[in-house]
Prior knowledge:
Elements: H1 9-23, H2 28-35, H3 38-48, H4 55-64, H5 71-78
Residues 26-27, 29-30, 77, 82, 84 line the site of zinc ion.
Amino acid sequence: MSKIRSMVLDEIYQSAKEQYTTVGNKCVVGQWAATLNEKDKDAFEASINDVDFSTRSLFRLYQKAGAPFGLTSLLTHRNGECGCP
Ligand SMILES: [Zn+2]
């Protein structure tokens, strides 16, 4: 019989709380942007405000960079309807 070590609730809660303080109030797009390095963060900010790019083409760019969110999330974020600060 193998024993599976499970985390106790206290540990789960503490790690969730740590994450919450850094990504709190941000949608999946904002959370992803927060994980980028400074250079990529600048590129993200510049690109999302670039009117020459449709949201769909931005979505393709971000996917290449490993973005985990969907087009709808990106649309909502770009329109400022997601609640990101
Ligand atoms: Zn957002």
